[in-house]
Amino acid sequence: MAKRKQIKQQNILGFIISLAIILLINYIVSFVHFRIDLTAEKRYTLTDQTKELLKNLDDIVYFKVYLDGDLPAGFSRLRNSTKELLDEFRVYGNDNIHYEFINPSELKDKTARDELYRDLYKKGLDPTNMKEKDEEGKTSQKIIFPGTVVTFQSKELAVNLLKNNISMPPEVNLNNSIQDLEYEFVRIIKKLSTEKTPKIGFIEGHGELSDIQVADITNALFDFYSVKRVKIAANLDALKDFDVIVIAQPDTLFDEKDKFIIDQFIMNGGKSLWLIDAVKIDLDSLAYTNATIGMVNYTNIEDQLFKYGVRVNPVLVQDLQCAVIPINTAVVGAPPQFAPSAWYYFPLIAPPSSHMITKNLNLLKSEFANTIDTVGEGLNIKKTILLYSSQYSKTISAPARVSLDIMKYEPDKRMFSSPYLPMAVLLEGEFESLFKNRITPDIAFNKDIGFKEYSVPTKMIVVADGDMIRNLYRKENGQITPYPLGFDRYTGQTYGNKEFILNAINYLCDDSGLLSLRAREIKLRLLDKAKIMDEKFKWQLINTILPIAFIIAFGIVIGIYRKRKYAK
């Protein structure tokens, strides 16, 4: 009896000691951040750049996430992923990361709710209509704003969390949205917490796009950069303070002085984005006539781009993957009757996911685009094709007759036999000056000019379509209002042009590896829906009966074992 009591006391003491050890370990671990990410692509592990940024915050960053309430499974997954990421941010942010999840539809008062909707839209959050069915089969619509408003000190910016690529299924769009969460949040935090921002210069004076024609991308860039229009006008210091210059669809000649200043800007490490039309064509003329002529657009920068390693060809790309325009299909004398028709001169470009600039982008809309060739054998220049046409494309050389008659006939795929034509290229490395061995000694050795024959490591992007950055606009009551860049007024669809330009400039400006976050890829492991439907009953049967059968079998085995053991 005494021995049994002693054993019982020892068991109780052992239990108390074990419990105390467990509690002590939990207390110690609460002060130590330790997590193990067992996923193949390390989806729950922050990058070193993100950790460093969060540790260096000197004030609170507040996230208002408008994604809460009764949501479908996909949006619930996006909300949960957002919360998990923000919790991870808080670990490294030294209590400088705060967040709140809000359901904008929970307001009972319709006036107040509509006012909140308008406010969120003005801040930059895009609404999504979600249809719901109740138990009686009645359908209702619910507006959600899958985004967040981020505040740091007195500054505020909005971030849309949902990627909506029309060429991708919903599951892939959702996966891409979750994949880009860290990049989007880090990008916004960096913008809000950085006092000195890079300076972007839009070159003018050579027939480039006007301020209203690039108003939407300019406004978008203002959220991240200092933006200014600049006229070189032979001023050696015109580009002195700029980090990136944008040359958008020039249509008149560059003189040699302006070319020299741009050249030396590049030699000194300046970045550049060129959007060039090698063929000039007037689309508005097609509203009055059935055809027009596309002529070679000579601007005197062809030799400069050639020296840097690219040539924009004076050809027009036709692509079966294209946008539509309304065409009058009524017979002569009858009232006009417009119908959408495929316009092969407006290729829709599917950006490849092989580079961080084009990763996860929506389709891009181009207009009368040209092709690009990479030239030269410079060993110090890395050339990366960013955009190309579809599998079914071809070119016609300028001068070219452009006629609406091509839409009257079914296209012959055999005629579109030039697949994947390059339309944009990224150049990185050390460039050779266009003016090497071309200037007098007085200029070459002038200390005030500081002429360089070779550049420091830098980069540039050349796009063979000036319309890629041009937004439409409307005039009402004397006011000019720009449409979003990439907006198609015929279909109401907004393409990914703005995101492409933003990514391009972000890449040109970025020295901290911010865009490396876009290179991360979370593999989407989808179930085979057809197989699920075919084998639904089998798996239901297995999931229902097999666990019960296993427990019964385990009980029988244990019973037989105990019976044999204690029978002896």
Description:
It contains 13 helices and 25 strands. Helix 3 (73-92) packs parallel to helix 5. It is of the alpha+beta class and 568 residues long. It is globular, with a radius of gyration of 31 Å. The strands form eight sheets. Strands 8-7-9-10-23-22-19 form a seven-stranded mixed beta sheet, sandwiched between helices. The longest helix has 32 residues, at 536-567. The protein folds into three domains: 48-192, Glutaredoxin; 197-495, Rossmann fold (3-Layer(aba) Sandwich); 529-567. Strand 7 (199-204), helix 7 and strand 8 (226-231) form a beta-alpha-beta unit. It has helices at 2-29, 48-55, 73-92, 110-123, 170-179, 181-193, 215-222, 256-267, 302-308, 441-444, 497-509, 529-534, 536-567, and strands at residues 61-65, 97-101, 128-133, 139-144, 147-152, 155-160, 199-204, 226-231, 244-248, 271-275, 279-280, 291-296, 310-313, 315-319, 322-328, 338-349, 364-365, 371-374, 381-388, 393-397, 400-403, 422-429, 458-463, 473-476, 479-482.
